[in-house]
Structures are given as structure tokens and as C-alpha cells.
Write the C-alpha cells for this entry.
Amino acid sequence: MNPYSLLRPLLFSVDPETAHDLSLKALMATKNAAGLLYPKVPDKPVTAMGLTFKNPVGLAAGLDKNGDCLDGLAALGFGFLEIGTVTPRPQAGNPKPRLFRLPEHEAIINRMGFNNKGIDYLLEQVKRSAYAGVLGINIGKNADTPIENALDDYLICFRKAYSVASYVTMNISSPNTKNLRQLQQGDELKKLVSSMKEDQLKLQTQHGRYVPLVLKIAPDLTPEEVRDIADLLMQFNIDGVIATNTTISRDKIAGHSFATEVGGLSGTPVKEMATEVVRLLATELNGALPIIAAGGVMNALDAREKIEAGASLVQVYTGLIYKGASLISEIVNEM
């Protein structure tokens, strides 16, 4: 029996943010017994961005914002872990309640607002961890940093994360930090990616190692916007793209009591939108750089659809909350 099937009713009986915190603590407490509690995940290596991933299923950013639970999460069998989103300075995030479950849709709405303890705390947690697999660090800007100064925050985090990260993700697509998504547009995106790429090459010389730079984009972009982003990614030799973040659309949950809640919607309702962005990117990029697919990966079939659409790797988050850690082995075994 899947042990999570016994635990889920208890977790779903308390508010989502409390359940989140309890889950991370439980993972840390049981990390040494993971082999007994969860199905063994076979090795199915994938090479992308010059990195070798143990298997193609990763943890999406947002679950472990501060790197507190790396060893516990690693014990579940992920092929790679992405932590964050982290900002230069600690911040509390948006007021509670800010996390909502929609079980009938296998979905979550969140407006957390990059609540985290800051990049320095995260780096300490990474250094204390025994995790030796592929580690992505997802970076963002502080809420009180004016959007015109956003680049400064990304550079601070990138420079600090460079020495410990396997790759670094620029999160410019969260709907929960005011004006953040405008960084996906035209000249603002060009300025961001060109400056970050320039810094990456300096850091490569300084550290004697190359750390790939990845962009995470929204599912709510128009096809023309996706094409423009793909062109910029190739123009500036960005190493990878994550498609996608959460959606602000409520079309798939119309009529639900939480449909009017502000925030990003994840899970099954975003699946088709995210897959379509993967498909568009794959067509435009034509193999120039790898796509990491996220958004609505709730089972092995969903993961296969993302791969067939053109992704090299997939990430899960909401699927983990609804299905538990057995989702990882289910997907890997079917690939």
C-alpha cells in the first residue's frame, strides 16, 4: 500500500500551509527509512545542459524554498531538486491565508509571494546537506525592490548561488510579486538575459566551472510572446527553459468557490496550457536548448505527454501533494 494514502487525509484535514510545514518535517524525520517507505526509483540517466540527471523527474521550485529538506527530498528518488524561489533578503511573503486546495480539480492556488529566509540562509542549508545530485537554485527579486532595479537582485542571488548550484533558474513568471511578469516582455527581458549571461561568463572564469542559466516562464503567454522568448534564449545562449509556472487563468475552475482567489493556479487545470507552451518552444528552439516541463504532471501519462511535446525533463509539485512520493517511481518506470 502507498503509505501516503494513509497520511493524506490527515494532511488535508489541516490548512494547506500547516500541512506543507508538517510534510517537510516528516520527510526529514523519515529520510533514513525512505527505502522502506517508498518504492525504489530506478536510474534512468538523462544528459542536458552538460549535466547528468539520475532520472528525468525533478522537484519543482516552491516546495523547499529555503533548502531545509534537501536530504529528505533526495531520499524520495528524484532525479534532481530545485529549491527556492530565494531572494537577496529574507521576506515574509504575502498575508495569510495564501494557499488553497481544490481537490475536485487536483489543483492548488497560491499567492505565497516568495516567502523565504534569504539567499545566505539557503546557502548554509545547502552546505550542511549531504545531497550530491543535480541542484537547481531558483532566484527572484525582493517584493520591495522596484521593478526597474530587479536585475540587481537577480545578480546578487546568482553570484552567491554560483558556487553551490548545478544550475540557476531566473523566476520572472510568478504572478504573486507585483509587476514581476513584465520582465518577460521585450526590452526588459533582453536587458535581463543579456546582463545575466555576461555575468555568467565572468563567474565561469572566476570559479573555474560553468553553471547553466535557466529561465522559467508563464503559461499565460501568447504564442507570439513564446516565440519572441525562444528567439532571445537562443540569441543569448541561455542554457535551458522551464515551461511553465502557475497560471492566472480560471477557465478550468470556473464556478469554484476559490476561483476568485488571487494567485497562481497549479495542478491539472494548467496541464494543457503548459504542454502547449512546451510544444511551441520545442518548435521554435529546434533542439537548441533543453526544455524542462512543469505544470500539471499528475501521473506517468502527463509526464509522457510533456516529453513527447519536446521536453527533456519534467518537474512535479502539485502532483506530489495529491499523489505522494510514489508518483516519482510511477513516472520513471513508465519512461
